[in-house]
Amino acid sequence: MSKKVYIETEDCIGCENCVELCPEVFGFDAQENVAFVIMEEGGSEECIDEAIEDCPVQCILWKDE
After folding, report:
1. What pTM does this model have?
2. I need a labelling partner for 63 at 20 to 30 A (CA). Which of 7, 15, 25, 43 fits?
3. What is the residue-wise DSSP string for 8-65?
4. CB contact at 8 A, 37 and 12
5. Record: fold of 3-64
6. Please, what is the end-to-end C-alpha distance for the chain in angstroms?
7. CA-based nearest residue to 44, from 17, 64, 24, 15
8. pLDDT for 53-65, tens place per residue?
9. Shortest CA distance to 7 belongs to which of 63, 59, 51, 65?
10. What percentage of the chain exceeds 70 in pLDDT?
11. Residue ranges per domain, the chain?
């Protein structure tokens, strides 16, 4: 089973913390003012875990596939 990261975009407040921490994994849609996942798997788990911890609304999660 592999882990993939995802963002609950309806909860995202557009702070861009995740994009600043892991720009290879997360992107930002300025028009919608939400972050999105560029790379669901293969990014640094350590970086993603830091982004999860740093998210003020806790909308970044791991899911098992």
Report:
1. 0.91
2. 15
3. -TTT-----HHHHH-TTTEEEETTTTEEEES-SSSS-HHHHHHHHHH-TT--EEEEE-
4. no
5. Alpha-Beta Plaits (3.30.70)
6. 6
7. 24
8. 999 999 999 998 7
9. 59
10. 98
11. 3-64
